[in-house]
Design a protein that fits this description.
The complex is a heterodimer. Chain A is built from 22 helices and 1 strand. Chain A is mostly helical. Chain A is globular and about 110 Å long. The relative contact order of chain A is 0.09. In chain B, 68% of the residues lie in helices and 2% in strands. In chain B, helix 1 packs parallel to helix 9, helix 4 runs antiparallel to helix 5 and helix 8 crosses helix 9. The chains are: A mainly alpha, B mainly alpha. Chains A and B meet through helix 12, helix 13, helix 14, helix 19 and strand 1 of A and strand 1, helix 3, helix 4, helix 5 and helix 8 of B. Strand 1 of chain A pairs parallel with strand 1 of chain B.
């Protein structure tokens, strides 16, 4: 065991700390498994040698498996299979010399843990299973630890053997994650599953940024290298703040309403104004809207991809143009998913009595979510300063990278918005008619609901499924598999399961072989062996 | 110091002009549309009366609305207003020029769109939700097409701020290229979608089932509706400014040079006037699409933007 933290470790530990505190405060502090999980993550981040890294990583996997298992048994097997696959790739990789094989193994191992397409199908199943505090830490923290391992190996340890195609592979996987994650986030109905799909999307965005930087590093392009790294690491920071917030909020919704299915929620802002405000903030960050912490990384990432499309050979340029289109699709889908999450869950009329009677959060969870929201402020309003404090990390990962100042200035935009708001307020105060009057909604001319249905018939309100129907019809059926299932489940997991079944049958057949068959096999093997030997000697 | 003062004056003049002229542009478009349809039409000042009427009317809030009912119109208006301040109208080099990165602009459009969609879902009635679902569908393709078209401008202008693109296109010798033609077509398709014009949406439609943008505003009245309607007018002028600054940047004044302002102002009025004439004529000559045809329309725009960049790549290859 050997601990040797450097700037990169401290950055990721700094990212981990607020969400661990938030999860602990929000109700996980009594669980031993939770603290083992946290210990595993911290060990992996602090590790100074390969053994400690793997030990911490596997400790994290095992503890999180126990936590998933306690929440829901069904996805736990799938989850532990992927964790074993990830370990099986990582353990040989960390002892290999710097080479492309090592990189591919590292990418498979960390990609399976981070939920990078095509190894992401477990994530939307496993992340929602445990209690909200663990879900928050899995999405905000565990995924980041896997990305930390990827960054450390791709940029530092394997750097001498770096090839441009490493970056291209990473970008391609990232783009697939962005598209599938954002599309599924738009179509899923369960609140926590929506958030988990959005995690897949954000991991994809981070991977695209890392890929651009990795490719640029191998090709010696300092500007792109700096832009890509800035985008990726700032996205890591932003995602680690807002995703735990959203997961904790989803847990509170489930506690208050009894379900987190968007089709049974509605109008929660009325009964839960504090939770509604915090979730609105989180949803705005998830959608990467300007003035939120999610916008600066998106801004840098799009500039990095535009920059990559402006240089290099024609095939690379076409690739990056397509990447830009996919990032545009993904950004708009993420916006749609965030709007749907908030609009269906918190606005409108309640779709069930429990939703109408939900009471607001208070106490520990409120403090945890509020703390995360406060930490978002500097990332949202002073992204340049946050990037400045991360300079040692950039210098460690890419000593020669150019780090241009950020061209996006949120404070100036806030100033402009404030001026516009002041002018608007003046006009409305001076000439407008003040006050509002509450009346029955117009609702296309339909009459008021009967007295025994105070919120009207819930079935006359568009559902979350209905809202996503145009998107499902136009592109869902093209990109996803039948019944809006994940394409990798149909094309990757299902064939592997069938193959597994076939192997099991063969093994069972061998186990049940009669004594005659076994003797015949031994005799046949002997004959073949002697024949081969004789032919080899004679020839 | 003088440069800063002139920049400030130019920015204030720009703000005053755009905020004052937005309803007029909407009125002119409506008037010409009426003429093209063989009607007399309302006077071009009608949108001002309309806005004033909404200002003076009482504001109704549906019983099923939440406390955030008032937030969405304000957010939509503020995002649009900030975006308006970033796009040059009659001169380049305003104080807000360095902020006007194209991607920031796309983000501000996204805020306005999100606020409108949430406003539609606010009361939980059918039409608002249906409109929001369609708006999501349109925005997905519009945003992708816009980003791909943006790539073409960045490749030519070596900068991503609208101001920088306008200056580069006005001063460098770029000439008329096939790429820019394709990019223009892509940008026009996105502009028609974003501003909710025919063929994707109909701003004067009265059939709820066919509405997209208007369907989300059905429950709003009084000063909240005023904000949404004014934001829509601003958005129309904003897109005209954007297309004017990128594709017809000739004669744009410079903030530091007062003598270039009158020419810039005159040309700006002419440019906006020309676009305000062409838009209704185009609208009258086409039919509104079915909702599920719009993705194809915008997908074609995305492909055109893609082709524009491909031609630039090939040209760079041959040129080097």
């Amino acid at each position: 065991m050997h601990l040797q933290p450097d700037a990169l470790s401290w950055l990721f530990l700094g990212i981990l700390l607020p969400q661990v505190v938030a999860s602990a405060v929000a109700g996980m502090r009594g669980s031993v498994t939770f603290w083992v999980f946290v210990l595993g993550m911290a060990l992996a981040l602090l590790a100074g040698d390969a053994f400690t890294l793997i030990f911490g990583f596997e400790l994290m996997s095992a503890a999180s498996w126990l936590l998933v298992l306690r929440g829901d048994e069904r996805p736990a097997t799938f989850y532990v299979t992927m964790a074993i696959f990830s370990g099986a790739c990582l353990i040989p990789a960390v002892f290999l010399p710097a080479s492309s094989v090592a990189f591919v193994l590292i990418l498979l191992g960390t990609g399976a843990k981070a939920g990078l397409a095509p190894l992401h199908a477990w994530l939307p199943k496993a992340h929602p299973a445990p209690p909200a505090g663990v879900s928050a830490l899995m999405s905000g923290g565990m995924v980041k630890v896997a990305l930390y391992v990827l960054i450390r190996y791709a940029f530092i340890i394997l750097a001498p053997a770096a090839q441009p195609w490493w970056g291209v592979v990473l970008i391609a996987a990232g783009l697939a994650s962005v598209l599938i994650g954002a599309l599924r986030a738009m179509l899923e109905v369960e609140l926590k599953t929506v958030l988990a799909c959005s995690t897949v999307e954000h991991v994809g965005l981070i991977a695209v940024g890392l890929g651009v930087a990795l490719r640029a590093k191998a090709m010696g392009d300092e500007t792109l290298e700096g832009l890509g790294l800035q985008a990726a690491l700032l996205c890591v920071v932003a995602h680690a703040l807002f995703k735990p917030l959203l997961f904790l909020g989803a847990g509170e919704v489930k506690r208050a309403v009894g379900t987190a299915s968007l089709n049974w929620l509605g109008g929660l802002v009325r009964g839960m104004p504090r939770l509604g405000g915090l979730m609105l903030l989180g949803a705005a960050c998830m959608a990467a809207l300007p003035l939120g912490p999610g916008f600066a990384p998106e801004f840098l990432l799009l500039h990095a991809v535009i920059g990559a499309a402006a240089t290099g050979g024609i095939l690379a340029r076409l690739f990056f143009t397509a990447a830009l289109a996919i990032l545009g699709l993904g950004a708009a889908l993420a916006l749609g998913a965030a709007v749907r999450l908030f609009g269906m869950g918190f606005l409108g009329r309640p779709r069930s009595l429990q939703a109408a009677a939900a009471d607001d959060i208070r106490g520990a969870t409120l403090w945890a979510m509020g703390g995360l929201a406060v930490l978002m402020l500097p990332v949202a309003l002073l992204p340049g300063l946050v990037l400045g404090t991360m300079t040692p990390v950039f210098l460690l990962l890419a000593p020669q990278a150019a780090l241009p100042p950020l061209a996006y200035a949120p404070l100036s935009l806030v100033l402009l918005a404030f001026l516009a708001a002041a002018a608007l307020g003046f006009v409305l105060q001076r000439w407008g008619v003040r006050g509002t009057r509450e009346v029955a909604g117009w609702n296309g001319g339909f009459g008021a609901p009967p007295p025994w249905l105070p919120f009207g018939d819930p079935a006359t309100q568009p559902s979350a499924t209905g809202l996503a129907e145009p998107v499902a019809r136009a592109i869902g059926r093209g990109v996803l598999a039948r019944d809006m299932a994940d394409p990798t489940e149909i094309w990757l997991v299902a064939p592997l399961l069938r193959l597994h079944g076939r192997f099991v049958r063969v093994a069972e057949r061998i186990r049940r072989a009669t004594i005659r068959e076994r003797l015949a096999f031994v005799f046949g093997a002997l004959v073949v062996f002697l024949l081969a030997l004789g032919l080899g000697e004679g020839g | 110091m003088l440069g800063f003062a002139l920049g400030l004056i130019a920015t204030l003049l720009h703000a005053a002009l755009v905020f004052a002229a937005a309803p007029l542009v909407a009125g002119v478009v409506a008037k010409i549309r009426a003429w093209a349809l063989g009607r007399r039409g309302a006077p071009v000042w009608q949108p001002y009366f309309q806005l004033y009427k909404l200002l003076r009317k009482s504001t109704l809030v549906p019983e099923t609305a939440t406390e955030l009912f008032a937030l969405w119109p304000v957010a939509c208006f503020l995002a649009t207003a900030v975006a308006v301040l970033l796009v040059p109208s009659f001169c380049t080099g305003m104080l807000t020029a360095p902020l006007g990165d194209f991607i920031t602009l796309i983000g501000l459009f996204a805020i306005a769109r999100a606020a409108t969609m949430l406003g539609g879902m606010e009361t939980g009635f059918g039409f608002g939700g249906a409109g929001a679902g369609r708006e999501v569908l349109f925005s997905i393709f519009a945003e992708a097409a816009l980003l791909v078209a943006l790539l073409c401008f960045v490749l030519l202008a070596h900068g991503a701020t609208v101001d920088g693109i306008a200056v580069a296109f006005a001063t460098q010798h770029i000439g008329i290229s096939v790429s820019l033609g394709f990019a223009l077509a892509a940008l026009l398709a996105v502009a028609l979608t974003e501003t909710g014009r025919i063929p994707t949406d109909n701003p004067s439609g009265h059939l709820e089932l066919a509405m997209v943008h208007e369907a989300m505003l059905l429950e709003y009245s009084g000063r909240f509706l005023l904000l949404f309607e004014y934001a829509a007018m601003l958005r129309l002028l904003l897109w005209m400014n954007l297309i004017g600054a990128i594709f017809i940047p000739f004669g744009l004044g410079q903030a530091g040079d007062v003598l270039s302002w009158p020419g810039g102002l005159l040309l700006w009025v002419l440019k906006i006037g020309a676009m305000a004439v062409v838009l209704p004529l185009f609208e009258v000559s086409t039919a509104k699409m079915r909702v599920f045809r719009v993705p194809e329309f915008l997908g074609a725009a995305m492909l055109l933007g893609f082709l524009a960049s491909v031609f630039l790549f090939v040209a760079a290859r041959i040129g080097s």
